[in-house]
Specification:
Blueprint lengths: L2 E7 L8 E4 L1 E6 L6 E7 L9 E4 L3 E10 L4 H12 L3 H10 L11 E8 L5 E7 L8 E4 L3 E5 L5 H12 L5 H10 L19 E7 L10 E5 L8 H14 L16 E3 L52 E3 L12 E7 L4
Parallel strand pairs: 13-14
Antiparallel strand pairs: 1-15, 2-6, 3-4, 3-10, 4-11, 5-6, 6-7, 7-8, 9-10, 11-12
Length: 339
Amino acid sequence: MKQLLLSVFILINLHSVHAQHTFSIVAVDPETGEVGSAGATCLNNGASIITGIVPGKGAINAQALVCTPENLNLIYGLDLMEQGYSPEEILEELYENDQCPAETNEYRQYGVVDFGPDGEVRTAAFTGTDPDPYANHIIGDTYAIQGNILLGQEILDGMEAGFTGTEGTLAEKLMAALQGANVVGADTRCEENGTSSAGAFLNVACGEDDFFCFNINLDVFFLDPGVEPIDELQAAFDALQASPPEIIPILSDECEGAVEVEVGTGGSCLTYELGFTGTMESFYPDRGCDKEAQNVTDVWFKFTTPAVIPETGVIIERLEPSSDDDVTVVGFQVYDGCN
């Protein structure tokens, strides 16, 4: 039995159709079954649009030129992963059936890692011919590192050295990998800012049978000029390590006493299904309310809960958008056995 912790961040008014995203790593821990990713970019509206995790299975980073607000190739790749495609098969399928209308598959870059049918770790990466230079990738036994618009190969090498040279948890190794790229102008667009990048993220999903693990979903962006995002991410990670969330034992497989929470759609909004496997969205939601047929990607999520949440958790029923209140951070728990 395990509990799944999710964080949802909502960003209003996303109108861009593509963006360039920079350096990242995907990795697994064969001992714990954890799956994780980390990365950074000089775009100041967040880097985590490139990443998706299937807990207990694997992770994909889809970067360089990507569609926004939905990273269509990432969504497709995660669906393939859940269907059982290997990393190499996922890359082949993504190349042959590119989902993003912005340019071609040669503008893409991917890193993929997963656990195979017998628990073996499989890794793969792809760098097209057209991402902005310097662009390259590194494949290891349990990780894939990739980057574009880089200062040079030393950024990727620094990430690998940080990851492989660190003893500790998968999260600590991923954080060390990012610190290996903590160089002014690592993403060359940020050189004039005096930083490596403008936003950074760290995600780790627990192994399927690890009750005492807690998931990590950290994302820093919209920082003041000159503030180093990797250092800000490190500070957030250190604070989390110093005061981890309390893990509450699950008392009832039948979820007796669980509180019903309304989570649904209304008006002219498209239906949302909240999935608890696959991509762990941070603040890029799927397309939502079509206000007055203008195809605006504003999305509102409204959660109503009692003052005290019982240990048996909550049942998520439907999502009801409201144009009155902007919800910036939502956290909740989902227990196995609650439909």
